[in-house]
Amino acid sequence: MNSLKIDNLQASIGDKSILHGLSLEIPKGEVHAIMGPNGSGKSTLAKVLSGHPDYEVTGGTATLDDDSLLGLEPDEISRLGLFLAFQYPMEVPGVSIANFIRAALNARLKEGEKIKAVEYYKDLYAHMDDLGMDRKFTSRSLNDGFSGGEKKRCEILQMSMLNPKYAILDETDSGLDIDALRVVSDGVNRMRNPERGILVITHYQRLLDYIVPDYVHVMSEGKIVRTGGKELALELEDRGYDWIKQEAVAS
Amino acid sequence: MISPSQLDVDRDKGNFHYDTDYSFDAGIGLSEDVVRYISEVKKEDPWMLDFRLKALSTFEKKPMPTHWATDDLKNINFDVIRYYLAKGQQPSRTWDEVPDDIKNTFERLGIPEQERKFLAGVEAQFDSEAAYSNMKEDLAKEGVIFVGSTEGLKEHPEIFRKWFGKVIPTSDNKFSALNSAVFSGGSFIYIPPGVKLAQPLQAYFRINAENFGQFERTLIIADEGSEVMYMEGCTAPKFETSTLHSAVVELVALKGAKIQYVTVQNWSNNVFNLVTKRALAEEEAEVRWIDCNIGSRLTMKYPGVILKGRKARGEVVSIALANDGQHQDTGAKMVHAADETTSNVVSKSISIGDGRSSYRGLVQMPGHLKGCKNNTECDALLINNKSQTDTYPAITVQGDANSVQHEASVSKVSAEQIFYMKQRGLGEAEAMSLCVNGFVNDLIREFPMEYSVELKRLIDLEMEGSVG
């Protein structure tokens, strides 16, 4: 089917179980948001779906348009069409943004094929202009010495260049001032289309003023405990998370 | 432009050998007879035989330098090595005259093609002697000499003898003594005053035989105001038994001369590579060693410059890559012996798997000198938890009219960096390759273009091999 579908997913790191039967389906064309208190397992979900080697999946399924993601290498998952915008993008000294994105695009081609340099740079510059990034950025080392805002812009640039079927944005708002937040949100909104599903993970309602979701899910103790429309985010902003936790425990 | 065939280089490129009938064979093991045999087949003058025999006795007296380096040196068995193997002493001037098995070897390594494209002259050594040696005609007219050491000694004794063994004395270390006793092959180069070579000269050192020791001896003299770039490449097949490569390279840069010496070594994992390289720089002369060490079981190599004249300048730029089972013990020596001399050392090492890289640096600045400067940077990159790096700087600076700067750093490619790069679709080897290339990128630019392409590709292939 045309969706990113997670069913009864259970995962742990070391001896610690973190996801306890999480189910969620993100069809193409929709933007879903996951909110939840610290430690509820939001970032773990993003990493498990991306194939991070530290996590062990102990049950459930996760499929991308019918392809199972579980057990695949992170690069295989990426090439199937899942992009993760990191909460803390890694610094990679000596590797320029331009070379890195080009290598990532080449990795999607058949063996022996390579993207053409002229077209590539034209495309890259167009995307950078959209994000208000100086063209000097292309030769800078990936995230090396970047400010928080620059790192997040660089994530969105990579996302737009790689054109994934599904994107997960993990706490993309953390470390952003209001101007940067607007630029980054514009970048994500431009990528909203009927062919792409987007999952926004955030701790604060603020981001959802800019990226307005179709659905909001609340995560607690490693599973989704409540699902609603965008108004649910506002309710959480007013009342905090405790009432949902208590309801979850009561049920 | 780089042709596809030049790009087609890899760590296995040198892994082949031909069964060759040698006309000259000094047999197995080291003795006075072996030394006498080598000197005799080369028809050397008595002074050279005398020099060799003295060197043999120095070699026998000197202990293995295991007290400061590595115990692996004990595993070299001098009794099973063959010290001299050659088809003949006279190198051909055209490739057509080179025997087929040797010609095929160098064709597979791409040497004749490189010669046509961008080189001013080539010497191709096969085991103990040069099989081919040729230089562009106009250079010969200008008085440039580029021949093998055997020929240099015979044809140009007045220049050869004046400088031979003067930069690196026989007794410098155990392996310089061994080389002095049994040396054969290597280049002899003389650049007359004011002659500036636009294209590089290249030598290629090929080991073909098993249980063989290659002991080439190179001597380059750049006369006043001249300029030369010399490049050397080396490979050997992968044998089960160990192979010894122990060269001595002496450079002399007279007043205002410039020498650049570029090495791209791609030895197989059975080679003990124990090389002594040193230069003498007179007033306002400049010597640069640009050195890339990939492969070998153990490499010990510390190119040096003796800054003898005022305002002389010395530089060592080196990249070392130690993969599983390899130890790259490399560094630099800068001996300041005149006012206002400057030296610069930039060293980058990469350790992969259980590979180990060590940096040893020596900087000497006596107190009576003024205005001397040294800058040393050594950076190490570790790819995983098993790999190892050490730095041993030895800096002797006296007086207060000189300046020395030393910076060292160690960084590691983290699992999170690799995960990040894989999340964008790159395979593990490719991700590591990008990190390593990024780490050495600024140094790779120092290599001539033809070599920098080869280097990047070699690094990629090392990374592919290191990921199961």
Give a quick set of tags describing it.
heterodimer; A: 251 residues; alpha/beta; Rossmann fold; six-stranded mixed beta sheet; four-stranded antiparallel beta sheet; 9 helices; 12 strands; 36% helix; globular; B: 468 residues; 2 domains; twelve-stranded mixed beta sheet; ten-stranded mixed beta sheet
Provide the fold topology.
The complex is a heterodimer of chains A (251) and B (468).
Chain A: E1 3-13, E2 16-27, E3 31-35, H1 42-50, E4 55-64, E5 67-68, H2 74-80, E6 82-85, E7 92-96, H3 97-106, H4 117-130, E8 141-142, H5 148-162, E9 166-170, H6 178-190, E10 197-202, H7 207-210, E11 215-220, E12 223-228, H8 231-239, H9 242-250
Parallel strand pairs in A: 3-10, 3-11, 6-9, 9-10
Antiparallel strand pairs in A: 1-2, 1-4, 4-5, 7-8, 11-12
Helix pairs in contact in A: 3-5, 5-6
Chain B: H1 4-7, E1 24-25, H2 32-41, H3 46-61, E2 85-86, H4 100-108, H5 111-118, E3 121-126, E4 129-135, H6 137-141, E5 145-148, H7 149-155, H8 157-163, H9 174-182, E6 187-191, E7 201-206, E8 213-214, E9 217-222, E10 227-235, E11 243-245, E12 248-253, E13 258-267, E14 271-281, E15 286-295, E16 298-301, E17 304-307, E18 313-322, E19 327-336, E20 342-351, E21 356-365, E22 373-382, E23 388-397, E24 403-412, H10 415-423, H11 428-444, H12 449-466
Parallel strand pairs in B: 3-7, 6-9, 7-10, 8-11, 9-12, 10-13, 11-14, 12-14, 13-15, 14-16, 14-17, 15-18, 16-19, 17-19, 18-20, 19-21, 20-22, 21-23, 22-24
Antiparallel strand pairs in B: 1-2, 3-4, 5-6
Helix pairs in contact in B: 2-3, 3-9, 11-12
Characterization of the model:
The complex is a heterodimer of chains A (251) and B (468). With 251 residues, chain A is of the alpha/beta class. Chain A has helices at 42-50, 74-80, 97-106, 117-130, 148-162, 178-190, 207-210, 231-239, 242-250, and strands spanning 3-13, 16-27, 31-35, 55-64, 67-68, 82-85, 92-96, 141-142, 166-170, 197-202, 215-220, 223-228. Chain A has a single domain (3-93, 148-250), classed as Rossmann fold (3-Layer(aba) Sandwich). In chain A, the strands form 3 sheets. Chain A has a 6-stranded mixed β-sheet with strand order 6-9-10-3-11-12, sandwiched between helices. The radius of gyration of chain A is 18 Å and the shape is globular. Chain A starts with a strand and ends with a helix. In chain A, 40% of the residues are buried. Chain B is of the alpha/beta class and 468 residues long. In chain B, strands 5, 6, 8, 9, 11, 12, 14, 16, 17, 19, 21 and 23 form a 12-stranded mixed β-sheet that branches. A 10-stranded mixed β-sheet of chain B has the order 4-3-7-10-13-15-18-20-22-24. In chain B, helix 2 packs antiparallel against helix 3, helix 3 packs antiparallel against helix 9 and helix 11 packs antiparallel against helix 12 (449-466). Chain B is globular. The A-B interface holds A 50-53, 73-75, 77-79, 83-84, 86, 89-95, 99-101, 103-104, 107-108, 141, 158, 162 and B 411, 414-417, 419-428, 430, 434-435, 437-441.
